[in-house]
């Protein structure tokens, strides 16, 4: 029976969405970790089941529980969610979380019951400066209905896709890009990783104690993109929500997703046309980020060699789709010297030198 009900719910939700004047973009706060096997299952369900059916859904991954990514300021929001499950999906700040095995049903129910968003968010202007690595944009936020009681806040969440890092992967649910051979430890490409919360965990005050009917509020915002991040893989999410005593109970009125480098309203990632590679910082003695692009789908291998041509470390060996990628690594265990990064991809061979002081 459940196999019949779920497709019907999805069809009903899609019909409601197509008929909506201001269709809702459901926002999922995905509480996850690189040290949690089921967390890769949540990623898999969101990427392979939820988003293909509801492509307007927005995912924000907040890393905690010992995750590598929790070191970023953006994941401070993780501490303001009361999670019952591991991992947890908090949908639109409705006040409760759902486990990964029920996330698709809960998203379908949300769209069916509430296809319209009461607030419209519109990006008016946006600029990306690749030299200063700064984004500037202006936007309008409009209450489309009657007076809305309560105080409302806005936040801007910067996320990045395609970040490779060691991850726990639970068998039968998600697929690692290349198993390391160690139990439950695999190289894995993470998506929707929160890099920054422009207005920190609780956002910026927008209006209150009520929002008058049909009133439009204007706002300008700017933020930087760190050199450790691949700008082509970065998006920013604008979310408007009603204030509450905690974020997991702060009802989302609407959210929109915008690419950092693409034009207004275009959230799809840019495609790479050739192989390229850089490492930040260089010289480096410690954490480093290797940015590379693959111009055509096919086998891909990323290695570190010393100047005598001896293999020091294999960082990646997998079949890769066309696109841009970010490999987070650590050079603290390398002896001082000059090393060569070698990328062998379907779209070409690239070599880059780096120095460990």
Layout of helices and strands:
Layout: H1 2-19, E1 27-32, H2 37-53, E2 58-63, E3 88-91, E4 97-98, H3 103-113, E5 119-129, E6 134-143, E7 148-149, E8 152-160, E9 163-167, E10 178-182, E11 185-190, E12 193-197, E13 204-207, E14 210-211, E15 216-224, E16 234-242, E17 252-259, E18 276-280, E19 287-294, E20 298-306, E21 311-320, E22 323-330, E23 337-345, E24 348-356
Parallel strand pairs: 1-2, 9-22
Antiparallel strand pairs: 1-3, 3-4, 5-6, 6-15, 7-14, 8-12, 8-13, 8-16, 9-11, 10-11, 16-17, 18-19, 19-22, 20-21, 20-23, 23-24
Helix pairs in contact: 1-3
Silhouette: globular
Radius of gyration: 21 Å
The number of helical runs is: 3
Biggest sheet details: 6 strands, mixed
The CATH class of the largest domain, by name, is Mainly Beta
The total number of structural domains is 2
User: Low-confidence stretches at least 5 residues in length (pLDDT < 50)?
Assistant: none
Distance between the termini: 63 Å
Strand content: over 45%
Mean pLDDT: 89
| Fraction in helix | 10-25%
CATH architecture label name of the largest domain: Sandwich
Please tally the β strands and state the result: 24
H-E string: HEHEEEHEEEEEEEEEEEEEEEEEEEE
Q: Which labels suit this protein?
A:
357 residues, mainly beta, Immunoglobulin-like, 2 domains, 6-stranded mixed sheet, 5-stranded antiparallel sheet, 3 helices, globular
Report on this model:
This protein is mainly β and 357 residues long. The protein has 2 domains: 2-259, Immunoglobulins (Immunoglobulin-like, Sandwich); 276-356, Immunoglobulin-like. The protein is built from 3 helices and 24 strands. The strands form 6 sheets. Strands 10-11-9-22-19-18 form a 6-stranded mixed beta sheet. Strands 8, 12, 13, 16 and 17 form a 5-stranded antiparallel beta sheet that branches. A hairpin with a 6-residue loop joins β18 (276-280) and β19. The model has no long low-confidence stretch (mean pLDDT 89).
